[in-house]
């Protein structure tokens, strides 16, 4: 996992719960917490931090990831403004993820393993995304989508299939 | 001594201040870290960009080096650029210098399945890319033009179509050869994109690279054209003609297709070249080629005019019905030459001899057909200038023997088989001088002497006469030197040597004569140059100036065969010469035919008025000799005096001159 993700998590946690909470999470996860955005770190470390946060906030890891994704969005906009400009809305922004955002990510972080989204736009206006990645972090994507909608002052509902379903990797996004 | 600093309990306990310091330091460090990361990220982004651009340039260079056509190279380059930039389609326009217009060309790259068909169709069929359009601007500026959003550009005529297809960015890049725009590429993307200076630089480089590919292909095409065309006239050359004729022959074997080959050779071209210079000769060839072109132009693709080299042209005409049609084409070519050609202030009347052969003879190879047309051309030439001759198989046999004779003559020159005989020319009065006419003989084998009548034409046609003529002159000068080594100047015996048209046309003739005389040690006055009357009056200007130069050396000049050619008093008046030789045809009948007698008398009177001496050739009897002497002829040459003598006999003749009574008789019966 790229260091920038750890940086964003630190910023989100610090912003909402204070620096001491982040320090506590690092202690709980037995990590020293020196992350630079350009570095790569073991996926186990992000999982340990998510687990630690869950325990302290009394949330499931899925809920932690969704919360993180949502909170990370404004922070990402702060860092990478040009990627957000030029999009009329969240839908358009989300659709550009494979072709624009992830290629940009790869420009910065050689070897970044970005997920791929198979898009399908339904007749009723719903946007169906199938998440494809070696990491099981669909919930982070879920949170990103909610956060993106908020950036454009839009409201979305996201429907999921239950764990174990062949469609457990699908997100159905509807704009309210 | 140990110093213990005083510490204030208040300072030690001011944790809040310490915390604030630490907090500030922490925040500062964090800002510095983010700044460092941002700088590093920027660097990485640039490296990534450069790597991708380098990869793009590399793939375009690879395409440029490996593809077989510039269209293919450009198509690959456009695909690479589109993939690199995420653009959806690209077009190429070729800049047409002549029409000062931009023309659309098919190489284009379109990402399929993006619904761009209507825009592509509009561009390819209805769009006129000149002027202030996107490619028009790039072509005019010679620099890339970048429109961030074509749907907001008032000078973008395809706006409506671009809106319908969702195209926004438009970029046009010129393709240059030495700063000259030869083509323009054009790309469209779906996103609004601001000009990317660094990428424009890359596109510029690609434009130059593609320009080199086009230039390379143009050079290749030019080389190919040059290798199949004559540089002077721009006509197809021999190789090109042979290819076409070979195809023609193959078609004639499998179908009813007919063809004719016309071999055209300009008459007296070498003379024009030698007298007026090569530049004039070239100008004449260009003019003739232009005239011939217009003659065959109406036949379009069915006829080909080629220049084989020198003054030889060939016209190949396909789908021609019979020999008459071929002859009519040949006559049209001759008619095209009727008007004089004006070159460097001079009017030149050019003519040609044309040999024709047709596919009906069932040729197996182009060389055979060309050979027969060439043979027919020589036949036309022999028949006189400006003629057309049709090939007949018997001509081939004659040509073969002529060719054999030519190679025999070459061998004869090499093996020194030529020699001279000398026929005495004696004066009819005691005041005259003795002389000889040098006559060429060919000792083909021991005991076999060939007279010039059998080979001189071939020697003249092949140009060997120039070398043979030099030999004759040298031998004659040597002989004269020998005869006169112990004689006083007033008793010198001179030798006259015949010159042919080819020799007269040699640019270095005068120098050659002078050099030969000097090398032999003979005196110029021991030499006389004979040329025929007809040769003297054709090319009058050239001949008269050369004769004047030769006379200036001290060499005498005789007009041979007088009375048989185009006797023209005005020419005779202008031409400076020393002797007239009355043609042998008049002498035999001098005693029985009053006309012959009158002609000879007229010539003698004329000579007297011009103050030149007269030699009568062909005197075979005492009566003839007597008549000629009575009429006042100065010199006699003929069998009655002596047959031509070999070198040794001539020497004896010279030795005996002063004492022999026979010779005194021959001198006029004194």
Summarize the structure.
With 176 residues, chain A is of the alpha+beta class.
Structural overview:
- The complex is a heterodimer of chains A (176) and B (670).
- Chain A is built from 8 helices and 4 strands.
- Chain A has helices spanning 3-17, 19-29, 43-57, 61-79, 81-84, 90-95, 97-108, 138-151; strands at 116-121, 127-132, 156-160, 170-175.
- Chain A has a 4-stranded antiparallel β-sheet with strand order 1-2-4-3, covered by helices on one side.
- Chain A is globular, with a radius of gyration of 16 Å.
- Chain A starts with a helix and ends with a strand.
- Chain B is an alpha/beta fold and 670 residues long.
- Chain B is elongated.
- Residues 664-670 of chain B have low confidence and may be disordered.
- The chains are: A alpha+beta (176), B alpha/beta (670).
- Chains A and B meet through helix 7 of A and helix 2 of B.
Order of helices and strands of chain A: HHHHHHHEEHEE
Helix vs. strand class of chain B:
alpha/beta
Q: Please state roughly what percent of the residues of chain A sit in beta strands, choosing from under 5%, 5-15%, 15-25%, 25-35%, 35-45% or over 45%.
A: 5-15%
C-alpha termini separation of chain A: 33 Å
Helix content of chain B: 40-55%
Main interface: chain pair and counts: A-B, 10 and 12 residues
Q: DSSP helix count of chain B?
A: 24
The strand order across the widest sheet of chain B is 13-14-16-17-18-19-20-21
**How is the quaternary structure best described?**
heterodimer
Task: Give the uncertain stretches of chain B in residue-range form.
Answer: 664-670
Helical residue percent band of chain A: 40-55%
Strand element count of chain A: 4
Largest sheet data of chain B: 8 strands, mixed, barrel
Query: Given the structure, what is the number of helices of chain A?
Result: 8
């Amino acid at each position: 996992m790229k260091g920038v993700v750890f940086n964003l998590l630190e910023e989100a946690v610090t912003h909402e719960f204070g620096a001491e909470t982040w320090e506590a999470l690092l202690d709980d996860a037995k990590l020293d917490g020196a992350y630079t955005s350009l570095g790569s770190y073991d996926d186990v470390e992000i999982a340990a931090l998510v687990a630690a946060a869950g325990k302290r906030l009394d949330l499931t890891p899925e809920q932690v990831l969704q919360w993180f994704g949502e909170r990370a969005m404004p922070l990402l906009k702060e860092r990478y403004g040009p990627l957000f400009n030029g999009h009329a809305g969240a839908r358009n922004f989300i659709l550009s993820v494979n072709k624009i955002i992830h290629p940009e990510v790869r420009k910065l972080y050689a070897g970044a393993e970005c997920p791929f989204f198979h898009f399908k736009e339904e007749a009723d206006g719903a946007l169906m995304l199938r998440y494809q990645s070696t990491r099981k972090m669909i919930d982070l994507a879920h949170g990103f989508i909610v956060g993106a909608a908020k950036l454009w002052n839009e409201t979305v509902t996201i429907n999921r299939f239950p764990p174990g379903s062949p469609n457990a990797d699908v997100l159905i996004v509807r704009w309210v | 001594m140990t110093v213990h600093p005083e510490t204030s309990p208040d300072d030690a306990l001011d944790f809040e201040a310490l915390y604030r310091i630490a907090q500030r330091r922490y925040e500062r460090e964090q800002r510095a870290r983010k700044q460092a990361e941002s700088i590093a990220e920027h660097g990485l982004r640039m490296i990534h960009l450069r790597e991708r651009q380098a990869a793009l340039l590399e793939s375009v260079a690879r395409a440029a080096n490996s593809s077989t056509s510039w269209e293919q190279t450009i198509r690959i380059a456009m695909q690479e650029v589109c993939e690199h930039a995420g653009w959806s389609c690209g077009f190429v326009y070729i800049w047409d210098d002549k029409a000062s217009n931009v023309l659309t060309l098919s190489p284009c790259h379109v990402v399929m399945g993006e619904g761009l068909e209507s825009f592509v169709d509009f561009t390819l069929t209805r769009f006129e890319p000149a002027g202030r359009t996107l490619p028009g601007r790039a072509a005019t500026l010679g620099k890339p033009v970048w429109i961030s959003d074509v749907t907001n550009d008032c000078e973008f005529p395809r706006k409506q179509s671009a809106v319908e297809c969702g195209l926004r960015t438009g970029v046009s890049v010129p393709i240059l050869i030495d700063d000259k725009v030869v083509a323009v590429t054009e790309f469209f993307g779906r996103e609004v994109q601001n000009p990317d200076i660094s990428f424009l630089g890359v596109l510029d480089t690609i434009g130059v690279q593609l320009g080199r590919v086009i230039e390379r292909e143009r050079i290749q095409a030019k080389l190919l054209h040059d290798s199949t065309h004559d540089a002077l006239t721009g006509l197809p050359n021999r190789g090109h003609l042979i290819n076409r004729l070979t195809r023609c022959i193959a078609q004639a074997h499998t179908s009813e297709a007919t063809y004719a080959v016309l071999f055209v050779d300009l008459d007296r071209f070498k003379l024009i070249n030698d007298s007026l210079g090569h530049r004039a000769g070239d100008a004449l060839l260009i003019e003739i080629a232009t005239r011939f072109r217009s003659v065959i132009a109406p036949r379009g693709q069915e006829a080909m005019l080629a220049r084989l080299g020198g003054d030889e042209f060939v016209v190949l005409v396909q789908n021609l019905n019979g020999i008459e049609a071929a002859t009519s084409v040949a006559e049209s070519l001759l008619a095209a030459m009727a008007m004089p050609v004006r070159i460097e202030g001079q009017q030149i009347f050019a003519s040609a001899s044309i040999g024709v052969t047709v596919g009906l003879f069932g040729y197996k190879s182009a060389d055979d057909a060309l050979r027969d047309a060439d043979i027919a051309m020589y036949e036309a030439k022999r028949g006189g200038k400006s003629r057309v001759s049709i090939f007949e198989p018997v001509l081939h046999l004659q040509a073969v023997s002529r060719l054999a004779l030519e190679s025999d003559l070459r061998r004869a020159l090499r093996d020194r088989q030529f020699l001279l005989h000398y026929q005495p020319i004696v004066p009819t009065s005691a005041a005259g001088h003795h002389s000889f006419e040098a006559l060429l003989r060919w000792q083909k084998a021991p005991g076999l002497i060939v007279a010039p009548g059998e080979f001189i034409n071939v020697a003249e046609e092949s140009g060997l006469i120039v070398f043979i003529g030099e030999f004759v002159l040298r031998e004659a000068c040597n002989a004269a030197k020998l005869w006169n080594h112990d004689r006083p100047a007033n008793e010198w015996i001179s030798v006259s040597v015949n010159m042919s048209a080819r020799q007269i046309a040699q640019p270095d003739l005068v120098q050659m004569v002078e050099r030969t005389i000097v090398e032999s040690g003979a005196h110029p006055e021991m030499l006389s140059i004979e040329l025929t009357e007809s040769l003297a009056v054709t090319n009058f200007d050239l001949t008269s100036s050369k004769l004047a130069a030769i006379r200036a050396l001290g060499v005498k000049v005789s007009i041979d065969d007088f009375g048989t050619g185009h006797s023209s008093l005005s020419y005779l008046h202008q031409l400076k010469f020393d002797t007239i030789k009355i043609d042998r045809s008049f002498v035999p009948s001098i005693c029985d035919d009053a006309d012959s007698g009158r002609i000879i008398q007229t010539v003698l009177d004329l000579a007297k008025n011009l103050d030149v001496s007269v030699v009568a050739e062909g005197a075979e009897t005492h009566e003839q000799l007597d008549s000629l002497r009575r009429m006042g002829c100065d010199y006699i040459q003929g069998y009655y005096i002596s047959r031509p003598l070999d070198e040794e006999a001539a020497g004896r003749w010279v030795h005996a001159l002063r004492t022999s009574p026979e010779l005194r008789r021959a001198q006029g019966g004194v």
